[in-house]
From TrEMBL:
Protein name stated in the entry: 2-nitropropane dioxygenase
Any GO MF annotation of the entry: dioxygenase activity
Keywords: Dioxygenase, Flavoprotein, FMN, Oxidoreductase
Protein's UniProt keywords contain Oxidoreductase: yes
Gene3D superfamilies: Aldolase class I (3.20.20.70)
Lineage: Bacteria, Pseudomonadati, Bacteroidota, Flavobacteriia, Flavobacteriales
Organism in which the protein naturally occurs: Flavobacterium frigidimaris
């Protein structure tokens, strides 16, 4: 038992990060059935679609699961009400102020975790009364902080400031990565990119195959003026770079981004015009695998690495 397995009543301290267009009930329930904590990503779902996924997830697993709610999308209140009505017990909030909803959710008996990218925000989340925080380094796929703080530096700095449990995120796809962040002070890990390239992820196969092909250096954090996001350097990314050369206004960037780019790339499989959100660790992901196998590999590797203590003696 550790702080995270105890908090969520799960076997392994591995959380599958909520991921727009990737983490529907199939992925979340597969992770929960394999001993981790699966999260349904509400960010890409209309409220009634979310309700359907929660109901299907309850049928697909009798293990704990949660919902990730990025607070930057419209319909926020409706989403929160559905989560409460459907009796979801765990909520991970991100991309917003943890003060806004934490006490409301806690009053409903929900365990609340907030995602942060700095120790300042970690402190604010702790003050807002969350049960744990996800500290996410800038290696991570998806939206991220502007400061470019890496997971290696973020985890010990957050650990110095806060007392509640810490879940490390960003760049973790193996048992060794997991052990490294836990040695730095994390109590568990949140994994995104590795699960985006799983059989059960709801993203388009073109996107999954791209993740497998991505090499070191093929992703970049961009669009910092809007909401910083790590993307594969595809045609859309190059279009953004060309626009930057013309010193664009925020409105120019908004116009180029347009609507539904992430859906186009990750769900519809348009590898040129779509946004392809993935983390730096994709360079280490070489196969699309079933969730159960991913988790078993991570745990075996974690345990093997723990036995190698003698290797570090000098
Ligand atoms: C395709 C994709 C979509 C994501 N969407 C969300 C999201 O909707 N909400 C959120 O809080 N984080 C989102 N993230 C971040 C993940 O939940 C997770 O914290 C991150 O992927 C961890 O870093 P890693 O990619 O290096 O594993 C997304 C990440 C990816 C790769």
């Amino acid at each position: 038992m550790n702080k995270i397995t105890q908090l969520f009543n799960i076997k392994y301290p591995i959380i599958q990060g909520g991921m727009i267009w990737n983490s529907g009930y199939k992925l979340a329930s597969a992770v929960s059935n394999s001993g981790g904590l699966g999260l349904i990503g509400a960010g890409s779902m209309y409220p009634e679609v979310l309700r359907e996924h929660i109901q299907k997830c309850k049928k697909a697993t009798d293990k704990p699961f949660g919902v990730n709610i990025p607070m930057l999308y419209p319909n926020l209140e409706e989403i929160i009400n559905i989560v409460v009505e459907e009796d979801v017990k765990i909520v991970f909030t991100s991309a917003g102020n943890p003060k806004t909803w934490t006490s409301f959710l806690k009053e409903k008996g929900i365990t609340v975790v907030h995602v942060v990218s700095s120790s300042v925000f970690a402190l604010k989340a702790q003050e807002a009364g969350v049960d744990a925080i996800v500290a996410e380094g800038f290696e991570a796929g998806g939206h991220n902080g502007r400061d470019e703080t890496t997971t290696l530096t973020l985890i010990p700095m957050v650990k110095e400031k806060i007392q509640i449990p810490i879940i490390a995120a960003g760049g973790i796809a193996t048992g060794r990565g997991m052990l490294a962040t836990m040695i730095l002070g994390a109590d568990g890990v949140q994994v995104g990119s590795r699960f985006a390239a799983s059989i059960e992820s709801s993203s388009h196969n073109n996107f999954k195959e791209t993740i497998v092909k991505v090499k070191e250096g093929d992703t970049q954090l961009t669009l910092k003026e809007l909401a910083p996001v790590r993307l594969v350097k595809n045609k859309f990314y190059q279009d953004v770079q060309e626009l930057y050369e013309k010193c664009p206004s925020k409105e120019d960037l908004v116009q180029l981004l347009g609507r539904a780019r992430a859906k186009k790339g990750m769900f519809e499989g348009d590898l040129e015009e779509g946004e392809l959100e993935i983390g730096q660790i994709a360079g280490l992901i070489h196969e699309i695998l079933p969730v159960e196998q991913i988790i078993q590999q991570m745990i075996t590797e974690f345990e093997d690495a723990c036995k190698e203590k003698a290797k570090f003696e000098f």
